Structure formats: C-alpha cells, structure tokens
Amino acid sequence: xxxxxxxxxxxxxxxxxxxxxxxxxxxxxxxxxxxxxxxxxxxxxxxxxxxxxxxxxxxxxxxxxxxxxxxxxxxxxxxxxxxxxxxxxxxxxxxxxxxxxxxxxxxxxxxxxxxxxxxxxxxxxxxxxxxxxxxxxxxxxxxxxxxxxxxxxxxxxxxxxxxxxxxxxxxxxxxxxxxxxxx
Amino acid sequence: xxxxxxxxxxxxxxxxxxxxxxxxxxxxxxxxxxxxxxxxxxxxxxxxxxxxxxxxxxxxxxxxxxxxxxxxxxxxxxxxxxxxxxxxxxxxxxxxxxxxxxxxxxxxxxxxxxxxxxxxxxxxxxxxxxxxxxxxxxxxxxxxxxxxx
Lengths: 183, 149
What we know:
A: alpha/beta, seven-stranded mixed sheet, B: alpha/beta, Rossmann fold, six-stranded mixed sheet
C-alpha cells in the first residue's frame, strides 16, 4: 500500500506520516523504518535532521533510521513484508539524484528510476508512506536546472497521487484527505 | 468561461484535455508558454466552439511589459471580447488555464512583483466572471464555483 502526503514546509507532514506508521503497525514483527534522504550538507541541515531524530526518539523505540540519500533501491532487499516504511522526503531525494555529481541530468532516466524504486519498495513492505513538499505556487524560475527540477517533481507528484491508495494534503497542521481514507 | 487553476506542473492541461476537449475534436488551443505574442485572440477568426487558453498569466505578463497597463485593462481588452463571443452560442466554451503563482516568497525583481500582484487581481476577475472554476492539485480536481453568481 502507498500513502502520499504533500504540503508546505513545517505543515506537519512528518508528524502525520509518523502517526500513520505507528498506528498501522500490524504486530511486533512490523518494523517502522524511517528512510531519510537528507544529506548532511551544512549546520542548518544537521539541525533539521537532529530535530526530526529527536522527535522520533521521544515517540517510542520502534523506529529504525536508514540514511540513504541516493541508491534507495539498494535497501529493497533488506525489507520485510510486514515493515512500514516512511520515506522523508521526495524533494530531497530528487535533488540528490539530480545534483549529486553535477553530471548531465537525464530527466527521463531519473523519473523512471524513482518510479521503479517506489514500486519495488511498496511491493517489499506492508505500507510505504511518502512525504513531499508542495513548492508549486510561485512564478516558475527561469533558471534551467530549477525549472527542470520543478517539472520532474510535479510529474512525480501527479504520478504518485495517481498510484497511491491514500493521498493527504497538509495545510498548517491540518490534514485534508484528497483520496482514499485517513489511516 | 471556465477557469482552471492550480500550481505549476500540477496536471492542469491534462485535466482540461480529459474533461472538456477529448469529447469534442473541434477546438483551438493557444499555448501562451510557447507563443506569447498577444495577437493570440483573433476573436473574429475563431472557427471552433471550444477555445482553450493555456498560461493566461503569461499573456498578462506580456501586456504588462508592452502596454504598461494592469490586469483590469488586460481583462477588458483581451478577454471581454472572447466572453461576448462565447455568449452568442450555447455550444461555445472559453476555457482559461492559469497557474497560481501567488503564494511564494516576494520576488526580488520589481517587474516580477508587479506581475504577481496583477495575476492575483486578474484571477479574482476571472473567478467573478466564470461559470465554473476548478482547482487542480496534482491531477485531483476541486470545483470552487459552479453557476454564475
């Protein structure tokens, strides 16, 4: 099962995603896996990562964190059928894929790879929850790479919204159900 | 007039194609992202009943740059004639797609700021004059207005 959650920064996306994951643990056999895509780039990023880590530690001890900025497909083999995987988040994952080594960006290849990886993750666990940021309500930048980034992210959002069983839009801490059901 | 809005890259065009256009094969599509010169509304020469204008905010941007006028001028000058044309025959439909560019950080560039402001004003005018308004969020539609009021 796939659940897609999207909203602005600090709108409570992670919190609701973590709640859903914890509520839907099937048995003690289900592990809660936090798939973190952030890279430690600077002080600010480190603070954000620590903030999220601390948040999870304060919740309960079930969470296992896997830090995987790229090559996310490599963790598929480590998953168990009853696991709940929480991928936080699509935006940083895409920027890692696009801007990791400054080589030429092949958008079709990246889109295909990310869709495929999500499909594999979903098939290998009980429930995959994906978080992403809504960054689409301002003038589209003319800067080529940023334009391309928004274009690919928008396409991925549309695709995952279509594929997901449940879709939630977050607005200032308030979840708005766009598809499926609240879990 | 049917207005379709939502963020960039949210699937507005595909939604319009599926909802309004595919059932009729006679339509004219003006893509203002590709063709921004604003002789794009030759009302007297329209041959089809369905007219789609994609990227209305780009048309507005051109007008602001060239005419030094505002959203209200743009509406009266370029959209009102179309609405009059639409009223003549019940089969006629004018569909306007506009990206919502009004919710980001204040742009540093003054022209972009003005464009963003006028886009907000234009959308209020579109909303008031529309028969239907739909907002698209990653392919999912929400109807904000039905019937003229």
